[in-house]
Amino acid sequence: MMKNNVCYECAFWEELIAYPPEYMEVVSNQCLRLHPVANKKDKTLILGGKGKMRYFMRLDGSLIQSNDIWSIGTIPDRFKSQLPTTAIEVTFKAYRQLKKSQKKCQARACMDRYNCFRYDRALENDERGPFNVIPPKWNVGDEHCGFFINLQDIKSDESSVFSKPNSNETKN
Prior knowledge:
Layout: H1 8-18, E1 24-27, E2 30-35, E3 54-58, E4 63-66, E5 68-74, E6 87-90, H2 92-100
Antiparallel strand pairs: 1-2, 2-5, 3-4, 3-6
C-alpha cells in the first residue's frame, strides 16, 4: 500500500477487482458472496443472511438461489465502473416462473405487456406498433397469462438485497 500510494480501502477494492472471490456477484452496488444452498439442518454451519433463502437472476438470464449470503461491502463510487451489476434480486414467484421457462413474450395485444418482464417492447418499434391501447383502469394481472412475470417481482432497488433498517433482520 505504501509503495503504491494507495489507502487501505482502495487497496481492498483493487484487490477484489483483480482477484474476485468465488461466488461473488454485484447486486445493487453491493458486492455479495452468494454461496450454494446450504443444509439448514446442519447446526454447525453459520449461514450468511440468517439462512434466509434469496433468489437472483444474472444479466445473462441464469438463476441463482442461496441461503448463505455474505456481504463484501458497498462499492465506493470510484470503483462502480469496474464492478458493474452482475445480478438482480427477484422474488420467489418470479424465480419459479423463470425456472420453468426463459421464453420471451411477443404478444402485442396483451393488456399486461407493459408490466411484464418477459415482454420485448422493441417489437412495437416497427410500422405495425401495438395492436391495442390499454384501458386506463386496467388491473395488472387480469390477463391471466401463464408466462406473465410482473415487473414488481423483479426487484432492482437497494432494499431488495437487505431488509429495511426498521425490520428485524440486519445486514451481514
